[in-house]
Amino acid sequence: MYSGTQLFLIYSGLFFAALVFSLLIFSLFMRFARTLGIREKDQMLVRWSSRSKPAFGGIGFFILFLVSFTLHGVIFPGEGSAALRPELLGLLAATSLGFLMGLADDAYNTKPLLKFLVQVACGAILVASGTCIDLFEKQWLNVAITIFWVVGMMNSINMLDNMDGITTVVSMAILAATVVCMITTDAVDPVYMVLMVGTMASLGGFLFFNWNPSRMYMGDTGSQFLGVLLAFVGIRFFWNAPSPMGSWEPARQFVLPVLVFLLPIVDTTVVSINRIARGHSPFVGGRDHTTHHLSYLGLSDGQVALTFIGLSLLNVFLTFVVFRFVDAWRNLHTLIFVSYALLVFATLFIITRRSKAPLEDEEQTQP
Questions:
Q1: Residues near 227 by Cβ (< 8 Å), separated by ≥ 6?
Q2: Is 310 exposed, middle or buried (0-12, 13-18, 19+ CB in 10 A)?
Q3: Could you say which DSSP state residue 83 is in?
Q4: What is the rounded average pLDDT of the residues 342-348?
Q5: HSE of 219 in the Cβ direction (CA atoms, 13 Å)?
Q6: On the chain, which terminus has fewer CB atoms closer than 10 Å, C or N?
């Protein structure tokens, strides 16, 4: 229906229109409401910033997501029914549930068990609607790893939201990698493209308020919504990425999502190892994340964010290399990309072991 040039102009126009819309939304939030997501002092989670700030990010993300979902039928009038596919309806239901759980957590500080059960339910909804990791012959194993992936990603994105701008730029990079996947494999789906572009624009608008020194947090409302959405695109475009050769390549299936989601995976793994080694629960907040230890080395908050931007862009580039130039997956490819992932993990892990937190920050990490 549209030429390639017309599609480029449509998606570019959508991005900039959504970016302006998101800036307006967040500006209105900052002007008219200042309490959502701000808990009493004795109930606050341990955060890097010493100031309480409103958590509006997730509300803006969800609004732009719904608008993008609706806009597809307007931009592509002949394909309105494409948005009613079971997997997309499942995504809408799962992200809505994650959003509502995050909203409740920001407002009332809900119990961890309830939060976990809702995360499992989000994974179950995706599975029931046809979004499931296809890695094993036994379906129950695929279902189990899918739910583990969804729960793990929702918690990883939540844990990564510990310093201004970090989760925002990492999430934008993952969505950008998804766009790269669709373009390089010549499998652009208009519905997914509109959703990716709209969500990236909402993150870009939020970043204006979330860059250090931030005026706004995304809160659990944002991290839980993003966790479900990113888990979904991870399954659809990376875990289940089709092989160019048409053969089953489990090594490719495993390496691709690790490469794209490397930073949230590494941060969660490093923090969990260090906390368990100290005899602490990995789910108790603290100032002991990889981002914090980069700050302890002397980097400013902005420089830490720039470091994560650089690593995220490198991951997007490597994803492009895989999709564009790697046809038949060989052991050498596994060695190269796994070695890169281990190098990033080892570097950040060693930094957390070598850098020393100030006394007041060490006290904040106690459960």
A1: 98, 119, 150, 153, 154, 155, 156, 157, 158
A2: exposed
A3: G
A4: 96
A5: 32
A6: N
Length, in residues, of the chain: 367
pTM for the full model? Answer: 0.90
pLDDT digits (tens, 9 = 90+) for 222-254: 999 999 999 999 999 999 987 776 667 888 999
pLDDT at 328 over 50: yes
3-state SS track over 10-50: HHHHHHHHHHHHHHHHHHHHHHHCCCCCCCCHHHCCCCCCC
Spatial distance between the Cα atoms of 76 and 248, rounded to a whole number of angstroms? 34
Give the residue extent of every domain in the chain.
4-364
189 within 8 A of 233, measured Cβ to Cβ: no
CA dist., res. 198 & res. 365, Å (int) = 37
Taking each helix axis from N to C terminus, what angle separates 250-260 and 262-277, rounded to the nearest 10 degrees?
80
Integer Cα distance of 350 and 169 in angstroms: 23
> What is the rounded distance in angstroms from the CA atom of residue 366 to the CA atom of residue 132?
38
Q: What is the DSSP string of 291-310?
A: HHHHHHTT--HHHHHHHHHH
If you compute the radius of gyration of the chain from its CA atoms, what whole number of angstroms results? 20
For the segment 134-146, what is each residue's pLDDT rounded down to a tens digit? 988 899 999 999 9
CA 73 centroid distance within chain: 26
- State pLDDT tens for residues 22-72: 998 888 877 766 555 454 444 444 455 545 677 778 899 999 999 988 887
| Lowest mean pLDDT across 82-86, 201-205, 316-320 | 82-86
Q: Are 283 and 113 in contact (CB under 8 A)?
A: no
Give dist(CA 128, CA 233) in Å, integer.
16
Q: Angle at the Cα of 184 (from 180 to 186), degrees rounded to 5?
A: 120
Three-class SS state of 336: helix
